Amino acid sequence: MKKLLCLLVPAIVGLLIVKDSLGSPPLPPIHIQGTVRDFQNGQPLQGVTVRGKFSTATTATDANGKFTLEIPDNETTLVISMIGYTPQEMTIARRTSFTIEMKPTASNLNEVVVVGYGTQKKADLTSAVASVKAGDFVKGNVIDAGQLIQGKVAGVTVNVPSGDPTGNSVIMLRGITTLASGSQPLILIDGIPGNLNTVAPEDIESVDVLKDGSAAAIYGTRGTNGVILITTKRASGLAEPVIDYSGSLSTQQIVKKLDLLNAADYKRLAAAGSNRIDYGHSTDWLKEVTRTPFTQIHNISLRGGTSKTNYVADVNYRGLQGIFLNSDNKTFTGHLQINHSMFDGKLKAMADIVSSENKYYTTGDGTGFSTLTYRQAVIRNPTDQVKDTAGNWQERSIYVYQNPVTMLRESHGENDATNTRYSGSLLFEPISGLRFKGLASTTRYYQTRGYTETKKNISNTRDGRNGYASYGAATAIDNLIELTAEYNKRFGDHALTLLGGFSYQDNTHSNSWMQNWDFPTDVFGWDNIGAGNALKEGLAVEHTDRAHSNLVGFFGRLNYNYQEKYLLQASIRHEGSSKFGANHKFGNFPAVSAGWRLSKEEFMKGQTLFNDLKIRAGYGITGTAPSDEYAALPQLAYGGYTLQNGVWVPDLSPNQNPNPDLKWEKKTEVNIGLDFALLNNRISGTFDYYNRKTHDMLYQYSVPTPPYLYPTITANVGVMQNKGWEVMLNFVPVTSKDFQWNASIYGSHNDNRLVTLSNSLYQTTVDYFDVGYTGEPIQTSTHRVQIGKPIGNFYGYKVVDITNDGKWVYATNDGKTTLDKDANNKQILGNGIPKYYAGFNNSFRYKNLSLSVTMRGAFKFQNLNFQRMYYENPTITQYNSLRSAYNKVFGKTQLNDVLEYTSNYIENGDYWKIDNITLGYNFNMHNNKIIKVLRVYASTLNTATITKYKGLDPEVMIQDPTQPLAYGDDGRDKYPTTRTYTIGVNLTF
Amino acid sequence: MIKKLSIYTLLSGLLCFGCTKVDNILYSTIDSDKFIPTKDDVNSLVGPAYATLRDLEMGWDAMYDLEEICADELVIPARPNGWVDGGVYKTMHLHTFNSLQPHIETVWADCYTGITNCNRVLFQIESGKIPVTDGKDAILAELRALRALYYYELCDNFGNVPLVTSYEVKVGELPKQNTRKEVYDFISSELHSTMPLLSPVVDKSTYGKMNRYAAWTLLAKLYLNAEVYTGTPQWDSCRIACDSVINSNKYILEANQEDVFKTDNENSQEIIFAIPFDEKYATGFNLVEKTLQPISQHTYNLQASPWGGICAIPQFINTFDSNDNRLKTNWIQGPQYDANSGQQLGCEYPPLSTAGHKLEFINSLPGIDSSQEIDGFRLGKYEFRMNALFDLSNDCPFFRYADVLMMKAEALLRTGQADDAAAIVTQVRQRSFKANPIKATVTGAALIAGSGYKYGVAVNDKIAAPEGGADIKYGRFLDELGWEFAMEGRRRTDMIRFGVFTKKSWLSHRPNGDFRTLFPIPQDELDKNNNLKQNPGY
Q1: What is the torsional sign of CA A964, A965, A967, A972?
Q2: ipTM of the complex
Q3: How many whole angstroms from its chain centre is CA B506?
C-alpha cells in the first residue's frame, strides 16, 4: 500500500501535467508605479501584493508602500491584495501612477488560512480551523507562542499555569480525549514539528489551529489533540531593506498572597496559651524570598532582497525574571531565512536556521525553581529569624521544614540549552498549478544542567553531605523529510487541488547525569565534580539513557469545489510508528468534509442581509501514539543487585509486560459548522458542534499477577467521548476614519464522558480507578475516574457539620451523618474541568490611539484548594497557618481534627478575568525619512479576576504532567501567578 | 518535459523506499527476543527471584509492618509530623482493615512477583534458554524451595491463593484459586522433594540462599503452624525438622543477641537464612527513618532526617523483666543526646517545644490517634550505624538459630514435654541475663502458665477494663517469643497460634472478628481475576 501510494502520487500528478499547455506570447511591457496606504490611518502599507489580473506580472509594496510593476500592454486591471484588507481591483485605463487606499476587512473570508501541508482561503474551508494573525495576538510579556492566542480561539484553552518564567503555556482543545498521553496538541513551526519555544513570539506572523478531526487527520497519529500551525514572518521580495525593532520592559507582582499568621499573631496566640512558639523575631518570609522582577524583551528583524533573492533575519532576546530570587529565564534566538527563486519562479529554494540559546538558574537538582522554597516560606514561623546570632542560617529539626532563604542562597544551578533547527526546501513548479516540494530538517537540542549545594546548605548542616554537586546533559535529535506534490486546476466551474506526499520522522533522545558530594571546598561547584569523595566511596550515582523512535507516513488529499459553492475535501494518511506493537505497525487515518456556501446560491442573490453563509460538515479519524518508545517490546533491564557468593551481582530481569498488540488510540470526530457574515460584514461568526470519540484508548491496564510479572500493561482499552459546541462572533460596532471598534465574543462547552475501560481481551470488573495525590501527610487520592462519568471528578468524604469539640461530621451515602470515616461513604464532590469557557475581546482605535482589552472566563467547575486543606487547621502549630484556620467551621466552632481531604476544601472555581489590556499610540511618521513606524504601548496581563474562589488563582493548571487526570487540584506549592505590567515600543526603519 | 518528470518521479520514489521502515532501536535496555544468555549471565538472571524478598520484607507498607502493627508489640500512632496517612496504620491496629489496605496489596504483589520470577527462571533453565551445565538440578531445587518460601507467606497471610507453577500462561487465562490446605500441602511436598538436592554447605556461597537448613527451618515453621493452616497439628514433624538443623551443628547462638542484628551481621553464625541488604547495592532497609524523630538525626549523625513513626506499645514493654538485657539493648529509650555536643536534644514540636521540653523516649502512649514526639520506646534491635546513610546495611535475619530452638521448645511444650522445652528456653535466655543468671532459668510449669501481658484497652496508659493474659494457654511461652523476637516481623503469626490475635485488646485495639486471622485478598486482585473468591468475613 505505502509503496504503491508513493509511486502513484507523483505519477498521477505527472500525467495531469502533460494535458496542460504552456505560456502565452510576450508583449511589450508598460511601466506603472504607485503607493498603497491604509484607508483609516494613512500609514503606508508594506507587503501588499499588486498584480495584473490577466497576466503574470506581480510585485509587492516596500516599506514606504511604494511599488513599481511592468505589465503587458494588453493588461486592463490591477489587483491589490493583502491579508487583513479588502482586495481591490483598479482599472488601469492608460494611467501609470496610482495612489491606492485599502480598507481593512471586516470580514476575513478572503484571509488565507494555514492548513496541513498548504493554505486555503477561509471561504473554502470545510473543517474547523481557526486563525489568529499577529495583529490580534495577546501583547506584552507573553511566556511563549501559546500565550499569544490565549483567549482568542473558541474551544482552545490556553493556560499559563504559574508565574514561573521557565514555565510553558498548556493548551487543551475540545476536552480530554485520552487517559495516558496528555492533551498537548501537535505544534508545527513552518511545517516542522517543534514546540512553543522554537521561535520567539515576536517572530510569529500567524497561529492557526486545526480543531476538528477532518482537518487534523492528515497528521495521522499526531492529530488527536489538534494541530497548532505557527507561521513565522516571511520575506516578500521588497525593493528596500526594512529594519523592525520592538522592545518591552515588564515587571510583575503576586496577584494575591495567602493571608497567613504574622509575627504579631504568633505572639498573641502564644500569649493566649496556644502551642505556637514565639522565637521573638519578626520575619516576612515571602518578602525574604521574592523581589520586584524586571523583564526585558528585544527583537530586531531585517527583511530585504529582491523578488528573486530575499531574506529575513530575526534576532530576539528575552530576559525574563520571576518574582522569586534566583528565578529567571534568558533566551537568545536567531532566525535566518533565505529564499531564492530561479527559472522564472519555476524553482524556489529556501534555507532556514533557527537557533536559540537558553539559560536559567535552578534551585533544585536539575529541575528549575524549587517550589518547595515557596512552601517553606509559607509555613515558616514568622517569629523566627533568617540567621542566628552567630550568623549561621537558622534551621530547625522539624520534618520537611527548612529555611527558605538558605535554600535560595546556599544552592545554585544553571540549565543551559541550545536548540538549533536547520531546514531547507526546494519547490519546483514546472507548470502553473503543479508543485513538487521537498522539505528536510534536522533539529538538535542540547541541554546541560549544573547544580550545587554549599557546605552551608541544610544538606550539610543537617545531613552532613559536606557540599554537593551534580551535572547532567540531555540531547534530542529530530529529523524530518517530507516530499509533497500538489496540483491545482480549474476546469470551468470546477476547481480541483490534489496533494500527495510522504513523510519520515525520527527522534533520538538521551539523558545523562552524574552527582558527587563531600567536597574539600565550595569553590568548584559542578565544575570540578571529581573533587568530591562520594563517588570514590561508591555512594554517588551516574546515569545515562538513550531512546529512539520513528514515524513514517504517506498521505493524500483532494479538494474540490464547484463554483465555490459546493466544497469537498477528502484526505487519508497511512502511518506507522516504531512505538506500535509487532502486530499493528501501520494504521489508516481518513477524513472527509464538505461545505455549502448558501450565499453563492441563486436564491440568495437578491438578499442583502448575508454577505456570506456556509454550512460545513466533516468526519475524520486521528490517532495518538503511546508516549513510551518501547511500551510494546519485551525488554530486559539491569536493576538492583543480589548477593551471590559474597559479591553483589546485578540483576537482569524483564522491566515490563510486553504487548505486541499495542497500537494507536483512534479518535473519530464529527464536526458540523456554520460560518456567516452579515450586515455588510459588520457581524460575522462561526458555530461548530462536535462529537469526538476516542477508541482503543491507551491505558496502564491492571492485569492479574500471576500470570503477569507486573501488575499493569500498556494496552488499548476504553472509549472516551467529548461532545460540545463552540461559537465565535465578531462585531464591528463602529467603523469610521477616526474611530474603530472591533469586538468578539466566544463561548464553548464540552461534555466529557468515559464510556468504557474494557476491550475483548481486557475486561475490567471494577469500573473506576483513583488518581491525584494530596501529598503528605494527608496521603490520599483526590479524584476518581469512573466509567459513565466525566474525567475530573473529585472523590472523597463529604462533610456536613462539625461536632461541638471540632470533629468533622461526615455524610453517608444514604443521606445520614456519621462521625466515622468509612471509605464506603466517599462520594463525588465536584469536577475540576470547566463546563463552559467564554471570552469577550474588544479593540478600540481613535485616530492614532488604540486600546484593546481581552477578557475570558470559565464556569461550572470546582477546585480543590490545597492551601486551605493544609494551612487552615488550627491543630497544626509547628507550621504557620492561614488566619482563617481560627475561624469557626460551619459557624459553630474551630476545627479540632487531623488534616484531611474533605469537601470543605472544594470550592467553586468560576471566574471572569480581565486579562490583557493594551493601550498603544502610533506616531505620525509620514514625513520622517528614518523612522517609518513608531508605536508605543503599555499593557497589563492577568489584570483582574472576579471570582468567589478563596485560593490564589481559580485558573489552575489544566494539565499537570506529574498529576495526570487530577483536574482542579490547586497544589499548595504552585509558583504563584502574577500580574504583569509592560511598556513597549515598535519601530520600523 | 515528460522525461524530466519521470526522472523526478523515479527520484522521489527512490527516496521514499529509503526510509519507509519503522524500526525499534534499543540503547539502554536489552531486546529479550534477541538476547542469548551465556553462563556468565546465569547469576544475573537468577538474582531477581531473590531480590523481591527485600521489597516483600522491608518495603514501604510491606510485610514487616503487616505482621507487626496489627499485633500487640508495635504501633504507628498519629505523630505531630503526620503518620495519619488516610488512616492506613490505624485500620491495621484496630483490625478494621479491608481489601483496600495497602500493606495487603504490597505483600500479595511482592509474593507473586517473587513466584513469577522463580517460575520464569525455572522455565528458562528447564527449556535451556538459560544455559546451566553444572549443578542444574541444584539450581532448580533451590528456586523451587525459594518459591515455597513465597507461598509460605501467602499461606500464612491469605491462605486461599492460586498455586501457579508454570511461567508460560496464555493471555487471558486466569489462575484458579486453591485452598489453604492445598497450598500447605504444596509447600510441604516441594520442600521434601527438593531437600536432598539443596546445598548442605553453610558459607558465603549459600548465604542469603535457600540451602538445606533454610528449607528445614521453613518446613519447621510450616509444621509449627499446621494446626492454624490445616486444622491438624504437626508438632512432631516440627520437632524433627528443627532437629535436622540443630543436629547439623552448623549454627550457634551468638553470645550477645544484639550481634545478630548489627550492621555487619553477615558473619553471624546464628543466621540460617538472611535477606541481605546494603546501603549502596541493596537499599530499602530504612527502619531508622521509620522509628526515630527528625531531631534524632543528631544522635547518630545520620545523613538523612528521620520521619518519627513506629514505636513500642507500652503494655508490651511492661511485660519485660527489668533485668532482661533485651529490654535495654533492643529498645531506644530515655534521654536522647547530640552525638557531637553531648547535650540532650530538645523537642521540636509544640506543645513540648514551647515548654522547652528535652527529648527523651518514654514508655507511654495516649492512644492510636495522637502522640507526642517523646511517646513510645523506639525500635533499636537493629544497630543504627553512626553516620548511617538513608538506608542501612544490616541484613535481615529472616531465619535464625534461636528461632529453630524456640520452635523445637514449643513443639515439646505442646506435646507434654514442658521441662525439656524449658531447658531450651533457658538456653536462649541465658545470654540476656548475664548480670543476673538465675533469672535466665525458666521452668516447665512457668511456660504452661499464662501471659504477663496486661491486655485491655489503654487510654493515656490507663486500662479501664483489664483483660490480662493469665487465661492464655502457654501464655508465658508467647511472652518468651515476644521478648526474643520482637521487631522481627512475625508477631501476628505467633499471636494467632496462641489464640490471642482476635481475642484480646491492647492500646486502642479491640477484638474485631475471628476471621481477621486471614487477611482479605486485595480488591485489586479480585477485580482482575474473577476466579478469586474473597476470604470469609470480608
Answers
A1: negative
A2: 0.89
A3: 22
